[in-house]
Amino acid sequence: MRTFNFSAGPAGLPLSVLESAQAELLDWQGLGTSVMEISHRDPRVIAVFESAQRQIRELLAVPDDYAVIFAQGGASAMFDLIPQNLSPASVHVLNTGAWSEKAIKGAQRHAAVTVTGAAPYVDVPALSPVSGVDYLHYCHNETIHGVRVADIGTHQVPVVCDASSSIFSEAIDWSRHDLVYAGAQKNLGPSGVCLVIAKRSLLNADAALAPVFNFAKLDAEGSMVNTPPVFAVYLIEKVLAWITQRGGVSAMKAAAQRRSTSLYAAIDQSDFYSNPVAPAARSWMNVPFLLANPDLDAEFVRQSEAQGLMFLKGHRSVGGMRASLYNALPDAAVPALIQFMQHFEATRA
């Protein structure tokens, strides 16, 4: 029986995508082998990569002068690889939570860094128009603290965005973004791939990097400088088709707003549960919440899992609970969670 997966990542994948991959696992395209077992130089594998890149461009309306790259190492690697590829002398970071902190540490290894924002992470700090640095970095959606940047504003420098936990849940304004990256394992596919969409004019082919980490060279080679994570991209291509079939990014946005709005309403109407984030800054993807009595946290997790509501325990740095509401979450999941929360409150308050 499939349970409701509220994991912050790696997250659940659409059931139809898993079933399609299952059916093809032993025999892909009549070859009598899986897609994992043949060369990435095979024309059929190359076609999968090209299809995935084409669908990304269509779903996100990516301009032609931006590269679409499947990079290895995940989003954490990007905290160092982006400054190494862009070769900045100075960077400004909008700090809205734990992943912003990691980006700050990564950038500090390669450039002078200035910061707007600090803990506690319960709102988006006011950000004046940024100038005088080589780029501005921000995290669109903080998975741990549940803070979402609704509008980054307009700046006089290139803008780099970590969209790992919100990619394909809403449109991207490319007039305000020069590089967007996202670990795949939340809204896009399994772990092992980081999607990088970058304005080609920013990329430095001569950066002192191994070719497998050089964005310009990855772009030139169709993300195949070395053997790429073929199975991960194969699944991503299927997820992209699933998003398209369900109405594209606009449909994903509507679903995200519907799910998060109903869950926040249940929390706000209760004296037993609470969410510390300012309403205008609340994430649509990751909803952290606290129980009035933290001694009940372990019992809440135990009982929720018995009801098929999985992986609700909050991050160790903030405690409490966290419900991640990524694109693949079935429509019935949030109503089931709310019903359980109300029952738990009625029996424990």
Automatic annotation (TrEMBL):
User: Can you name a GO cellular component term?
Assistant: cytoplasm
From the UniProt record, list the coiled-coil ranges: none
Its EC number is 2.6.1.52
Q: What cofactor requirement does the entry state?
A: pyridoxal 5'-phosphate
Report the subcellular localization.
Cytoplasm
Annotated Pfam families: Aminotran_5
Q: Does the keyword Phosphoprotein apply?
A: no
Residues engaged in binding pyridoxal 5'-phosphate: A75, S76, W99, T143, D162, Q185, N226, T227
Name positions with the PTM N6-(pyridoxal phosphate)lysine: K186
User: Domain of life, per the record?
Assistant: Bacteria
Per the entry, the cofactor note is: Binds 1 pyridoxal phosphate per subunit.
Q: Which reaction does it catalyse?
A: 4-(phosphooxy)-L-threonine + 2-oxoglutarate = (R)-3-hydroxy-2-oxo-4-phosphooxybutanoate + L-glutamate; O-phospho-L-serine + 2-oxoglutarate = 3-phosphooxypyruvate + L-glutamate
Query: What top-tier enzyme class does this entry carry?
Result: transferase
Give the residues the record marks as binding L-glutamate. Answer: R41
One annotated GO molecular function is:
O-phospho-L-serine:2-oxoglutarate aminotransferase activity
Outline the subunit composition: Homodimer.
Q: Which family does it belong to?
A: Belongs to the class-V pyridoxal-phosphate-dependent aminotransferase family. SerC subfamily.
Q: Which PANTHER family match?
A: PHOSPHOSERINE AMINOTRANSFERASE
Q: What does this protein do?
A: Catalyzes the reversible conversion of 3-phosphohydroxypyruvate to phosphoserine and of 3-hydroxy-2-oxo-4-phosphonooxybutanoate to phosphohydroxythreonine.
What protein name applies here?
Phosphoserine aminotransferase
Organism encoding this protein: Litorivicinus lipolyticus
Q: Which gene encodes it?
A: serC
